[in-house]
Amino acid sequence: MAEQTERERYFAEFPKGRVREEALKQALDIRKFEIELYWKRATYFWAFIAVSFAAYFALKSTSDAESTYIVSCLGYLFSLAWYLVNRGSGTWQRNWESHVDLLEDEIMGPLYKTMINRSTYKWYNLAEPYPYSPSRINNILALGISIVWLILIARTLYKEELLHSPYSGTFVAMSVFTIVGAIVVREQFGSG
User: Fold this and answer.
1) pTM to 2 decimals?
2) Which of 4, 16, 95, 118 has the greatest number of C-beta atoms within 10 Å?
């Protein structure tokens, strides 16, 4: 008996004809919905992160080290959550794109797999289009912003000498909240 391939198993779930057509239609709709959600979430996180940066630099000028530390910890948590949400959104987007890739050939041809004139795009033509991935760039940016917040946390701790002065309850609570928050976001919500 021949072993069934992943592709054969997939198509066994979606018989030819109306079922595959409907499956493709649904996959296209859900893919579009996932892309819309991705950018809505990005906007949501950008708003929180922008407010956090504004608050950080406003508080930094007042020499309120404890408040600056709190804002930098919150900025880090928002940025980390943004990065992880981007990665999770990418997983679902890729899932629905894979459905489209498998189903489209028979029903409408390889429309989503085919990029016309791809060889004409050159990265060094700075005024011309190039097929960069906006979601990958956004992921890298989110990771970079998370690292910037970690640097700002370290800077606040070092410059404001928070590590050398007696620890306040707020400082300890925020430190614990940030560490636990980062672990919880990563471990508890990272499995989808």
Assistant:
1) 0.80
2) 95
